[in-house]
Request: fold
Amino acid sequence: MTSTDSTHTDSRNIHTGGPADATAPALVELPARDELVVDGRGDPDAGPFRLAVAALYSARAALCPPGVAVDVPLEGSYWQTGRREDFDLEDRENWEWQLVVPAPDGTGEPAGGRVWRRRAPAHTVAELLHRGAFADEGPSLQRLYRFVGERGLAPAGPHVEVYLTDPRHTPDPELRTILRVPVRGVRE
Reply:
């Protein structure tokens, strides 16, 4: 399946737009890929989250052959126990999360530590581009879930965020985040 409009994905599996407005929801088929993963729990503004991000990028850097980009967008899935597909955006202390970056092609397992490797299968997602602060994602997520329901689809897991800008160096109004919901029940 391809996107429902003339949108496409680039080599990082990020919806890149085209004539359609990327802030409007779209269905996108993501190809299978190898990923580096780290799991955690708690507020993403707390120390353990920052340490997990550092471990993930360190593992990628150690695996990257010369000339391969280490700086790729971070992806995060967020949920709460018993609420994998719908959770309280305000109860950040009880969030569980999984952080992901693409694994470099042709490389092995990360050496020790908490980072692990997996093969993500091809799958369909509904996605849109959220512009602005992470704290203001609620209406964008509601619009994305409404889009999924209006098409007779169902969420197939927690939502995913792909960070196109670095919050350490980007003012909140200029942040760009791809919001994704994996879906099932896709009609070909």
